[in-house]
Amino acid sequence: MYSAKVMDHFTNPRNVGEMSDADGIGTEGNPVCGDVMKIYIKVKDDKIVDAKFQTFGCGAAIAVSSMVTEMTKGMTLDEALKITKASLAEALDGLPPQKMHCSNLGADALHKAIEDYKNKQQK
Ligand code: FES
Predict the structure, then answer these.
(1) What pLDDT is stored for residue 88 in this prediction?
(2) Atom 4 of ligand 1: nearest residue by CA position
(3) Distance between CA atoms of residues 65 and 37, nearest Å
(4) What's the whole-number mean pLDDT along residues 10-23?
(5) Ligand 1 binding pocket mutation candidate from 58, 62, 64, 95 (most atoms within 8 A of CB)
(6) Can you list the domains of the chain with their CATH numbers?
(7) Model pLDDT for residues 100-118, shown as the tens digit of each residue
(8) What pLDDT is stored for residue 123 in this prediction?
(9) For residue 1, is pLDDT > 90?
(10) How far are the Cα atoms of 17, 45, 47, 79 from residue 55, in angstroms, in the given order?
């Protein structure tokens, strides 16, 4: 029921761990399943130069975290803000319908990390 890409990112997730010098951090949780995703980004000249994640969640949530951190590296903040749950699911060659909310978590946590970075710049 999972695509090969989902299985690959789930069994061999990229960019796992904490980033101690992150420029922005976004946390998103789903109260229904209890899963929580935290995304860290490093920003330089309006571009995301590095991204990491910590996720306590289902296999799809881990695959989504891995994919979103891979996708965003090298993107401008504006490009990264355009990432949606649909584009994430597509990048993973699809998710089962009951797992679409897991990709929502990835898009929301990323957008929150960007927001966090922008808020810190204004101080
Ligand atoms: Fe909730 Fe996957 S089951 S994030």
Answers:
(1) 96
(2) 102
(3) 8
(4) 98
(5) 58
(6) 4-121 (3.90.1010.10)
(7) 999 999 999 999 999 999 9
(8) 73
(9) no
(10) 9, 27, 23, 23
Instruction: Out of 35, 56, 95, give the residue to mutate to test ligand 1, the one with the largest number of ligand atoms within 8 Å of its CB.
Output: 35
Cβ contacts of 55 within 8 Å, gap of 6 or more = 35, 36, 37, 38, 61, 62, 65
Is the C-alpha dihedral spanning 109, 9, 80, 74 positive or negative?
positive
Residue nearest to atom 1 of ligand 1 (CA): 33
Question: Rounded to the nearest whole angstrom, what is the distance from the C-alpha of residue 49 to the centroid of ligand 1?
Answer: 27
Is the entire prediction scored with pTM above 0.90? yes
Residues making up the chain, counted from first to last:
123
Q: What is the dihedral of CA 111, 76, 38, 85, to 10 degrees?
A: 50
